[in-house]
Automatic annotation (TrEMBL):
Transmembrane segments: 12-28, 48-72, 79-99, 105-129, 141-163, 169-188, 224-247, 259-276, 288-308, 314-337, 349-375, 387-406
Pfam families tied to this protein: MFS_1
Keywords: Cell membrane, Membrane, Transmembrane, Transmembrane helix
Protein's cellular compartments: Cell membrane
Domain Major facilitator superfamily (MFS) profile as annotated: residue spans: 13-411
SUPFAM superfamilies xref list: MFS general substrate transporter
Presence of the UniProt keyword NADP in the record: no
Taxonomic lineage: Bacteria, Bacillati, Actinomycetota, Actinomycetes, Pseudonocardiales
Membrane topology: Multi-pass membrane protein
Protein name, entry field: MFS transporter
Length: 439
């Protein structure tokens, strides 16, 4: 009994250190969001150039997702988490001393590269260490608790930034990154003791074949468009344009804007376990949750943009809460990748899915910056922000179409395997006529 107890304790220690690495990674990722206006003054950057910082960071992140998935299948999670943490720390250290635009851009490239190595590696730890029934919930908890790294950037990092200054803030962030990297090296292991070793690393031709097979799997494409549809709006808000929008576009103080980012994290943490449990209990109804959150996000954004600025505070609070739901909903995309792909292809499939939301995020981040520069050149005006945020609608339309098409094909494949997904109308009708049987 004692060895099993020790293994149980070790499971939680390994997960906690992996989670800490991801949490600090999110702090690195979002640190530029709270420093956006400071960076504009430090580097004399126009809106499009400021967007370029984050766009390049996200471009590096997104472009590395598939290679990282392949590396994860080959080298394991521990090595990638350690290298990712140290790479992000190096990026923050470069940013701390940067006095020119090219050096600052290099810093964000390093942050994007390290960030790319971290999240799906931590998810691999969850899949390897936890029982399959608990994986959806633990995936949600990992993603949502990890997002509290935004609080580290919105509160203590912002306080140091606006107190001691730019260099102490980013040196502190780098030190924290080194600490979690060393902790991961000491504690994290790819799989529990006694678990079977993974199969030998595939040859390059087999890797390419696995990527093609993963993409051809309709469940992977459903996860891809799910992640795209639900993640980018909240990501763009937290990563770059949320604080400038609230301060310059809606009249908030910097403290109030930081509080709104904290609310974004807290609301996501509350929703995450609920969404994870729903996913575990109703795996054939995951897409309805995705479509509901997508529709709600579009509706609330439309209401905010339809009101002449400044919008009512309660409406902006509602917007932030709804944006927070996008994070846990996007995690359903990883659940599709896990359940529709065999184990030896899951790293590649998760990498494909994770790429989607970040490609959308970098596209929208750049689009908002370009429109701001065109509508209100040299300034961040409320009306310019109002126009700039409309670039989201094109991405929502593309993602919605992708979800609907991929869902139909995924259901056809399930039916060919003997799993019939009843229509929502038939389920509701069954519950009305026979509630006990419907359950």
């Amino acid at each position: 009994m004692k060895p099993r107890t020790n293994l149980h304790h070790r499971l939680w220690v390994v997960w906690s250190i992996g989670l800490a690495a991801y949490l600090v990674g999110v702090m690195h990722r979002t640190s530029f969001g709270v420093a956006g206006l400071d960076a504009a003054a430090r580097f004399q950057a126009a809106p499009a150039a400021l967007a370029g910082f984050v766009v390049l960071q996200l471009l590096v992140y997104a472009s590395l997702q598939v290679p990282v998935g392949v590396l994860l299948d080959r080298f394991g999670a521990r090595l990638l988490i350690v290298v990712g943490s140290l790479t992000m720390a190096a990026g923050q250290l470069v940013l701390a001393v940067a006095a020119s635009l090219p050096l600052a851009i290099l810093a964000r490239v390093l942050v994007g590269a390290g960030d790319a190595l971290t999240f799906i590696s931590v998810l691999s730890v969850v899949t390897s260490w936890f029982p399959a029934r608990r994986v959806p919930l633990m995936t949600q908890l990992t993603g949502l608790i990890g997002q509290s790294g935004q609080v580290l950037s919105a509160v203590p990092l912002a306080a140091v930034l606006h107190g001691p200054g730019w260099t102490p803030a980013f040196v502190s962030a780098a030190a924290l990154g080194v600490a979690v990297g060393l902790a991961a090296l000491a504690v994290v292991r790819d799989r529990p003791p006694g678990a079977p070793a993974p199969p030998p690393a595939p040859a390059p031709r087999e890797v390419l074949h696995g990527l093609v097979c993963s993409w051809r799997e309709p469940g992977t494409r459903l996860g891809f468009f799910t992640h795209m549809a639900t993640q980018f709006s909240g990501m763009v808000f937290a990563l770059l344009w949320g604080v400038p929008y609230l301060v310059a576009g809606q009249g908030f103080s910097t403290g109030e804007a930081s509080a709104m980012l904290t609310l974004l994290v807290v609301a996501g943490i509350v929703a995450g376990p609920l969404f994870g449990e729903f996913t575990a209990r109703h795996p054939l109804r995951r897409s309805w949750l995705v479509l509901t959150v997508l529709g709600t996000t579009v509706s609330v954004w439309t209401a905010v943009l339809a009101v002449p600025p400044p919008a009512p505070r309660w409406l902006l609070v509602l917007l932030v809460v709804v944006l927070a739901l996008g994070g846990p909903t996007s995690m359903i995309g990883f659940d599709y990748a896990r359940t529709f792909n065999p184990g030896h292809r899951q790293g590649a499939a998760v990498g494909i899915v994770n790429m989607a939301g970040f490609v959308a995020s970098l596209t929208v981040s750049l689009g908002v910056g370009v429109v701001l520069g065109l509508v209100g050149p040299g300034d961040y005006t409320p009306e310019a922000f109002r126009v700039a945020w409309t670039v989201q609608y094109a991405v929502w339309a593309l993602a919605l179409g992708g979800v609907l098409v991929a869902r139909r094909r995924a259901r056809r494949k399930l039916e060919s395997e003997g799993v019939v997904v009843p229509s929502l109308r038939s389920v509701l009708a069954a519950r009305r006529t026979n509630p006990a049987r419907a359950r």
